[in-house]
Each structure stands twice: as structure tokens, then as C-alpha cells.
Amino acid sequence: xxxxxxxxxxxxxxxxxxxxxxxxxxxxxxxxxxxxxxxxxxxxxxxxxxxxxxxxxxxxxxxxxxxxxxxxxxxxxxxxxxxxxxxxxxxxxxxxxxxxxxxxxxxxxxxxxxxxxxxxxxxxxxxxxxxxxxxxxxxxxxxxxxxxxxxxxxxxxxxxxxxxxxxxxxxxxxxxxxxxxxxxxxxxxxxxxxxxxxxxxxxxxxxxxxxxxxxxxxxxxxxxxxxxxxxxxxxxxxxxxxxxxxxxxxxxxxxxxxxxxxxxxxxxxxxxxxxxxxxxxxxxxxxxxxxxxxxxxxxxxxxxxxxxxxxxxxxxxxxxxxxxxxxxxxxxxxxxxxxxxxxxxxxxxxxxxxxxxxxxxxxxxxxxxxxxxxxxxxxxxxxxxxxxxxxxxxxxxxxxxxxxxxxxxxxxxxxxxxxxxxxxxxxxxxxxxxxxxxxxxxxxxxxxxxxxxxxxxxxxxxxxxxxxxxxxxxxxxxxxxxxxxxxxxxxxxxxxxxxxxxxxxxxxxxxxxxxxxxxxxxxxxxxxxxxxxxxxxxxxxxxxxxxxxxxxxxxxxxxxxxxxxxxxxxxxxxxxxxxxxxxxxxxxxxxxxxxxxxxxxxxxxxxxxxxxxxxxxxxxxxxxxxxxxxxxxxxxxxxxxxxxxxxxxxxxxxxxxxxxxxxxxxxxxxxxxxxxxxxxxxxxxxxxxxxxxxxxxxxxxxxxxxxxxxxxxxxxxxxxxxxxxxxxxxxxxxxxxxxxxxxxxxxxxxxxxxxxxxxxxxxxxxxxxxxxxxxxxxxxxxxxxxxxxxxxxxxxxxxxxxxxxxxxxxxxxxxx
Amino acid sequence: xxxxxxxxxxxxxxxxxxxxxxxxxxxxxxxxxxxxxxxxxxxxxxxxxxxxxxxxxxxxxxx
Lengths: 816, 63
Prior knowledge:
heterodimer; A: 816 residues; alpha+beta; Alpha-Beta Plaits; Rossmann fold; six-stranded antiparallel beta sheet; 28 helices; 28 strands; elongated; B: 63 residues; mainly alpha; 49% helix
């Protein structure tokens, strides 16, 4: 007994880190080649790397290895070989060579890039593999006849890089392919802008007026015209298309006056050249298009590796194990229908509403309904799609097709078909309405004055069209695109990822914030565990840990985590029984040990007053040692965050799908308890938000994390999904925030509001240039040189100002 | 004076050449990923290899 205690004490003092993954070796230490590994998985991958001469892996970035997917079993990827699926997966095939582009969420460092590009050395059937790090994808070219897709997937999984195959991929829907056309347009516009300006230089300095240079002037003019043609018809086409579709919808967006101005400038310039009254304004035209295209490109460059549009189809697996005549095979989930019999293993999703055929199942619905504890189901019960099985494999009989399950019905709500974004409501569009109208009026008045009073029709026309040139709200467009683009980048640095610029603008108008509970304000895999009772000896702790490790109930897992310093014994337990909802019991040698509820252990339930925690009692040989209290762990800065929001004037609510266990704890944080709602189903959450919006006229921000929040996230004005691992699934939303950064929510909202102010101020600055330009235009004196100077100068001033101001605002609000 | 015409046309043609090169590189996907190539050059090429089947092993970059 003493020797045992001694060795255990020694172990606790030295920390062992795994050579492969860098984590601490907690439960067991595996020795191999003078290296230590934390688990079988890591040592197996090390073996693989050594065998293939790839130990260079560890010298690139250290111990960045990944343990292979524990849910892998032989045959998991067989469905990839089915012709209808492999056809959709392959990017290209010519019979001999094939190419596939897979998302590998586990890619995280340069060692990953190196290893994945060495695949050709591991299996010669792989010709080449190229990693796209920002998108976390690898493009593998392989010989189709020598390796199957399923074997390729298996190969990747063995090294810890399993591919993420979702239903969306299989249905052929690609996550938005990156737009190369934008770059073409920017290239051509830039090329034209530079060359036209160069050819216009003599005009700026009033050279070439002599008649001997007449021909050169004509040639320059024709070249300018030729260069501006692709700019007008190709590069600026987006503006015209957008303006036209807005006009047909009978509203004016910001592109309408831009299109009008570009058209006027183009026509005026052509007239000037043809009538030889001037050189035209082609340089301003090309420059304006060039700067605006850059602004749009900058604003729209979002995060390639993150998807904001995942719906239930991305959440469900692609294939499921089906049993027919005692033979197990994998079929695509879309082929599933009643009365197929399926097998669902531990940690796998139940794909369709079905009836339980096995005797018992423990289903974890936390992601789907928000209930944090698994529910027990008995044979014959109906189990709804979306839950995860925790425990041994179960057999089920399908009742409905996947697309008709109770869960997927949520997506039929019409909130999923409405467009959230309304281009005419952006700040730029609203300011533009006033601005354009005022300038049009000024232009009209100028025209009338020159035409009627001063009787000079030619100047009248020139004044009118140059007024419209100045009226081009490209300064306004630049203000908003560069501010929003910069804000997107600044948010991203703090691990808050809005979907697009429009989201930032809507965020600035929010006045109410609604939170989900499970997984959003609680930390899903953590808990506060305390033991109350007699002092447990080391041997008793080993006993408890070994028994608890056999169970996959979350409470058992928390107890195991609490006892991290203790190594579990490898002794086999006798008579292990787990009774759902009650507890577990087993024989340790000759001793009877029970873990579970008070009644299971035989204790009196006096402690039930404390309903804000779960209790797991321990009894050894019918002697009660005490109990563990397990409380959900809330994010540490929760109280601060909520009070900061309330101080800034936001109303806050809590909508949870869980039981009201922590009501007493949460009420003081939220201020009162009539803002807290529990046991809310997904549709109820959606309706609550709809009510806030329609009856009380509020702009609602929803913060959630699971599929049970999908409807609410969609219905709200802005929906933020909280994710502790960006690689994991998050439901369709307008922004994603990393769990640890949720505390910065008030700061993000203040920054969004600052963004609106910056746009307004920057527009004010551009007004200064506009007024200067207008004075020239109204007097009929806006020569090309002045326009050519005003335009880049104003653009650069605006870009510099908005960038500086938004960086300053970020520093001010987001303090660490 | 003809020199002017020739020079300007020539310079425009050269500029077109550069524009064409830009468009071609965008089309070939050089701008799809502007981050990974920067890391890739820092990873050393292996010179000492124990080839498994040397006639099938190829340098991935040339594909």
C-alpha cells in the first residue's frame, strides 16, 4: 500500500507530454523509441510516420500531431465508392486520373501542410496533393484505377486528417467558388486608368495646342476612347446591372446614380472628342471605376474557411449503416426510408425519425433541443432525428424519410425563405438618396440658368453634365466599402466573423439581445465538480475513476475529468450495470461500488433543496462516502458582459431549451427573472423573437449555438453563432464568434456603431471635395485636369481617413 | 513625328502584354490562394529519400 502511494506521488510531480500531439499524458504513458505518447492513437500515427520516413514532421512545428478519429471503423467511407456519390465528389476525372478537393478541418499548422503534400510518398497511387490553407482544403490528384476514394479517405484518417464530407457536397452544392471575374475587372480598369492618364498628360499642361500636333491630339483622343470602352462596358457592368434591377423593382439603390453619372461622363466625353471641343473625361471615368471596384473587392473578401450557410444537411452524416438480411452495408442518407433498419454507433447521429429496436438508448439532444442531459429511451420508443447516441450501438427502424423528420420541418418555416439583407437600407444608400436629389436639383437649376438667363446653350450642357460627374457618389461608396472592409478585418483579428458588411451595419441598429443557454453561455465540456463527504483515499479515487470511465454519461465524464491526477486501473470490473437515470454499479474485487442518484445509493434525499446542481452519490459496500456536485460551468465573464450590455441600454433575454435548474443563479445576472424562459422548443424561440420584432418593434440580436437555435438565428435581425471550435458545425447565421471572445460582445457592438459614425464623417469630408468640384462645374469650368486631380485625391483621402479612424475606434473599444 | 506614333503603339502593346500575363495568371488560379505558397517555400524539399517505387514518385510541384 505504501509503495503504491509512493510511486503515484512521484508520477504526479513530473509532467509528461506526448511527443506526437503535445498534450499532457494524463491517463497512461506509452513508451516507444525513447519517446512518450499520451494514447494509442498518437503512437500509431508516429509509427506510420516513421515507417514512411516522414519524421521530419516533428521538426517543422513541434508536436502538432493529431490523434486519429476515434469514431472511425472499417467501412466508414465505403459509401464514397458508390457511383452516384463519387461522381459528385470528384472535381475531375478522365478515367485514368481523378482529382478531389476535400475539406480537412483538422489542418491547423505548417506541419499539416507539409505532411499532406507528402502523400505521394506514402501511397504511390497519389500523384500529387496541394493544400489550400485558408480554406483548409487539400486537392488530391490520384490514379483512379489504383486507389479508391474510400481508401484515400481511410489513408487520410489514419494520420488524423479525416475529410469532412457533408450532404451539401454530395448534392453538388459548392460553397461559393471564389470570384475571379472581379480580379479581371480590376486589372483591366487599372490598366486603362493608368494608360489614359498617361496619354492625357499633355492636356493637363496645355501642351500640344499648335496645329502641327493636331494629328497627335486626335490619335491620343482615339486611344483614350478605345481604352475606355472595356472599362465602360465590361468593368462597370456590375453597376449598370444592379442599377437596372433596382429600377425594375421600383426603388433606387446606390448604384443608380453611379450608373447615371458614368453614362453622362461617357457620352459627354464622346461628344467632346467628336466635336473637337475638348479631350473628354475618360481618365476620371476609368479612375472612378477602378477605385470603386477595389473598394468592393476589399469589402467582399471574407473568410474562406468558414461557412455561414450550414443548414441541417451539413449537420447530418452522408451515409448510414443499414442492415438487410443480417448484412450491414452503408447507403447514402437520402436513400433511407421506412422500413429500413439502421445501426447507430456511439457518438453518431440519428439521421431520421425512427423506432428503437434495441433494449435501451441514451440520446443526447443538446445540439437539437438544448437539453443538457441525455434522455433514456426504451425499446419501442420513437426517437427523433438529430440526437446523438451515447453508449453502445443501437438498432432502429426508420419511420420517415430524412427530409420529413420533425427536425427538418423547422426549415419549412417561411423565415428561411425571406432575404434578410436589404440593400436599400444601408447607410450609404440612405445618405445617397438625399445627396443625389440635391445634386440633381443643383444641376437642373444650373442648366436652366445658363440656358435661359445667360443664353449660352453649350456651356449649359457642359455645366449640367459635369455637375453629374461630380455628383457621382463614388466617394460615398468608397467611404462605406473601405470602412466596412477594414472593420471585417479588425473583427476577424479578434475572432468575431461577420458574414458581410451588411451584417455590421445591422449590428449597429440592435437594441435587444437574446441569449441561448446550453453551449452559448455555458461551457459545454466543462463543469464545476466538488466532492462533499469523507476524505477519499487514493485507492478509492482509482476505483471511482475506473468505474466512471466505463460510462459515457456526461456526469461520469465530468467526474473522470475531475480526477485527472489519478491513473485509472486496467483491472476488469465484474457485474458492471448502468441503469439510465439512476446510476452505475460494479464489483471491484469483492467490493460492491455504486455511483448515482441518492435513491440508487440508498441515501436519504435531504439535500434536494439545492436544485442548481446534479448530485452523484458514491457508496462502497453500502457505506455512503459522500457525493459529487456537478454544476454547469458558465463562461467566466458572463455577468460582466450582461451588465455591460444593460448599461449601454440593451434589453436582455434568455431563451433555453433546458430545464430551469439554474434559474436562481441566472436571475441576478439578468436583473430579474421574467426575462428568463426555459424549456423552449425551437419553434417557440423563433416565435418569441418574431413577437419582439413585430409587436414591440425591436431590433433583435440572437446569440445561439445549436440547431435548436437555427430558426431564432434566422428570424432575428442579426444571428450570431457561438463556436468553441470554428471547424465544427455551426448553424446558418450572420456571424460566428469564438466562445472565449463572447465577452467582447458589447465592444463589438460599440465598434459597429462607430463604423456608422465614421462613414458619416468620411462622407462629410468628401462633401468638401464635392462642393469644390461643384463650384467649378456650375461655372462651366470643370476641365478634365481638375476632375482628374479631384478624383484620386478625394479617393485617397477617404481611404486613408476611414482606415485610420476604424483602427483607432477598434483600439478604443476592444481593450484586452 | 512618326517616331511618336511608333513609340506609343509599341508601349501600348507591351502594356497589353503585361495585362495579358495578369489575366492568364488569374485564370490559372495563382490568385486563388495567396497564403499557402508563402508557407510552402519555407518547407524544405527532401533530398535524401528512400524511394518506394522510384519510377512512380513524382515531384508534386511540376504537375
